[in-house]
Amino acid sequence: MSLYKADGAGDQARDRANADVIRLGRAPRGLRGTVVGISVLRGAAASEGEELERRLLEIGFVDGASVEILHEGLIGRDPVAVRLDDMRVALRRREADAVLVRPLAGGDN
Amino acid sequence: MAEAAVLDGTLRVALVGNPNCGKTALFNALTGSRQKVANYPGVTVERKAGTFTTPSGRRVFVLDLPGTYSLRARSPDEAITRDAVFGRLAGEAVPDLILCVADATNLRLMLRLVLELKQVGRPIILALNMFDIARHRGIGIDLERLSRELGMPVVPTIAVRRGGTADLLQLLDRCASGQTAAPGAGTWREPTAEEVRAAHHTVERILKTCVKPPVRPDTWTTRLDRVLLHPVAGLVVLLAVLFLVFQAVFTWATPAMDLIDAGFTNLGAWVTATLPDGVLRSLIADGLIAGVGSVIVFLPQIVILFFFINLLEDFGYMARAAFLMDRIIGVAGLHGRAFIPLLSSFACAIPGIMATRVIDNRRDRLATILVAPLMTCSARIPVYTLIIAAFVPQRTVDGFVDLQGLVMFGLYAAGIVSAFVVAFVLRRILWRGAAEPFLMELPTYKIPSARNILMGVVLRARIFLRRAGTIILAMMILIWFLSSVPGAPAGATDPAIDYSFAGMIGHALQPLLAPIGFNWQIAVALIPGLAAREVAVAALGTVYAISGTGDAAVGTLAGTLADSWSLATALALLAWYVFAPQCASTLAVIRRETNSWRWPVVAFLYMLTLAYGAAFVVFHAASALGG
């Protein structure tokens, strides 16, 4: 079971409650951590949120997967290339925002 | 399909796998040249099928399905994969066997898909491809245990090595004699997010028990990516690669293109000399040979372009190019994956439009299709060259920039900028809404396989030639008919095209084109130019009754044009050609790819409006400035 549901409501309250959990889309290059869940930000239609959640899951953003931000694009440091377990995935920060990550202790490179 | 009837007793196999798993390489290794590419009826997805014979003599029919991570289809490609495994495709029988192809060095996502495929209720084999690379890296895979865990036969393959499919062939023989049962019941439905999570956890457990992590992990990908994905160095490398590809497409292709051109010219001359004068001779020489020749002459460019595209794809660079370009072309609302189709369109919009199939989102794909023809394709070059040679003096600006080259560069830039503006209007103003996620795997770099690249290039060349022989041929005949019927009356002094339907249309159109500075000769030349843009050059030659062929004709024609057109008219025609929907083949391919007449009509009208507007502005501005 995931820790977070993709209903989009109460995002901020939950983010505050889990101060050590950050959104992958807001993380700097070099961040290492563990995926703890998917939570699509408010603003997207419910069906789109559900769709994005499943696509992220299908490509491997599952609870427990290890991630590291390897590279960033030139404009707006977007998109990002991340190491996800033993593979590499490129995605925009907008999509990466839905991925909740617990950074490794002292893991800021 | 007719094939189904002749395939009694044949084992029907469907190839399913993630993108980049080497599925096509395995398909090539199994079928060799016994492949057939067609389109599925009613949709735009290519159907790649082939046959081969196992050691025991059983015939096997293989369907290569588009790569996917899930049976939950989002793009037209993935819908085909889903429908094919369920046997829901019209004219396609249910497969006897699903052959899953996994990259042995990257099993995780494929095993998740395999678990989903078990619910389809068909027998399944899992082929662990690139097994040699996995072994080289010291990845230990317990095949027997994996087979037990998954409930299906598992076999290692090395698609790129001779004999690398021997084990698979033997296994297929055993399966054909009915020893493989379906590992699950036919209970598939779209998995929920929770079920996807649960499946991932099952895969994690299977991986822990059956696969030992690599002893010597791949470090090349990390090292290369440090440069190739670097925000600055990566873009510099990408530009250098693009520059090289362009150089190759435009300079390496020239000798071969000249050869083809000369071949068709000689063939036409031979036909003209051999056949008696008449309609038949005109149809064969002017309609068929000249018309089809004018398209086939682009074959070398298409071959070279696809050689590079396949090479970079096989190497693993294409996903990186999309990564680097995503935000840059994203300014115009285009998706990162639109980059390759737009790049291809510089050679010819037809392969470019076909390459948009990789874009999942319908609106992203339509926007890319609609702007692809604005990229300066090589068919515009003869027209640009002719007019520039006639009207732009050959001198250098600021001591080193060639003025003619500068105008040429300006025309290319105008095409790119207008494509971005149109895409911006489409995606940011007309079709607003959530952007399609950009989410793609970056495969590890691999040494490209010469055989795969070659087979890919041959495939593209065959598709292009087949099109030239069918739809383009039909268009050519139509345009030849308009340009030569009715024939000139006896004793006529003007060129025959004046008396034809094309001439009549040209004269009728002339008042409409007068505001943009076009005379009736241009109006007449625009009609055969619909067949292919560069045919307009030949048509201008005809209406100005220039004799001679090849470069000599262009040289003389340039002189004639310089005498008879104003500079404003010439510039207006250049502006017209940047935008004009002057290519029946492109419109036909848009019709086929979108499966509707609506989009070719939209493309035609918007490009015509832009062409007219641009020519109008340029003509009047140049006239006012004393052109």
Structure description:
The complex is a heterodimer of chains A (109) and B (627). Chain A has 109 residues and is of the alpha+beta class. Chain A is 22% helix and 28% strand. Chain A has helices spanning 11-17, 46-58, 93-96; strands at 22-23, 32-38, 66-72, 80-84, 87-91, 99-103. In chain A, strands 1-6-2-3-4-5 form a 6-stranded antiparallel β-sheet. The termini of chain A are far apart. In chain B, helix 4 crosses helix 8. Chain B contains 27 helices and 12 strands. Chain B starts with a helix and ends with a helix. A 7-stranded mixed β-sheet of chain B has the order 2-3-4-1-5-6-8, sandwiched between helices. Chain B has a two-stranded antiparallel ribbon with strand order 7-9. Chain B has a two-stranded antiparallel ribbon with strand order 10-11. Among the domains of chain B are: 2-212, P-loop containing nucleotide triphosphate hydrolases (Rossmann fold, 3-Layer(aba) Sandwich); 468-624, no CATH class. Chain B is of the alpha/beta class and 627 residues long. Chain A binds chain B through residues 1-2, 6, 38, 44-45, 48, 50-60, 62-64, 70-79, 81, 85-92, 94-95, and chain B through 69-70, 72, 74, 106, 108-109, 112, 191, 193-194, 196-197, 200-201, 204, 213, 221-222, 225, 229-232, 234-235, 319, 322-324, 326-328, 331, 336, 434-435, 437-444. Strand 5 of chain A pairs antiparallel with strand 12 of chain B.
